[in-house]
Design a protein that fits this description.
By secondary structure, the protein is α/β, with parallel strands linked by helices. It has six helices and six strands; from the N terminus they run βααββαβαβαβα. The relative contact order is 0.24.
Length: 192
Amino acid sequence: MLELKAKTTALILIDLQKGILARPLSPYSADQVVSTAARLGRAVVDAGGLVVLVNVEFGADLSAAPRGLTDQPLAVPPGGLPPDWSEIVGEVAHLSHLPITKRTWSAFHGTELDLQLRRRGIDTIIVGGVATNFGGEQTARDGWHLNYNVVVAEDASTSMGDGLHAFAIEKVLPRVSRVRKSDEIIAALKGS
């Protein structure tokens, strides 16, 4: 059974923003993930924990995006990214105690997230959002590298395909975290 101390726990929600949620997502839809993340966020707040909303911002022309050569580079749509591409959406938008803007997959790399979590005495992070196998996985890995206890909220996460989500959840994330459904996480928060 999962045990959590709410006062030393932070929920980190990755990229629940207009431009990313507009894409086809699975196994959970954008609406499902936002709803589950909001329910989880309210439980964290009610228990006295911290909610961190993370968005990614590259600039309309992707000038702030990583520049390394890849086989599948980020494509700039004609006219660039819309001005509201990075805007956090839905029921989660008002839950944040700590907003973080990142420029890469990880919420830790190049941001003040680690500093702010440590100043608040956080030792456990719950990770959810989009995409399970990109921003979620990289943030979970980096959190584990930084010696946080990591919990991944499986049903508050989704990706661009069932196989991508499943591979991360079943093969990678159990090596750096505890993967749980939101109901179990909420029950653990209520018991703390």
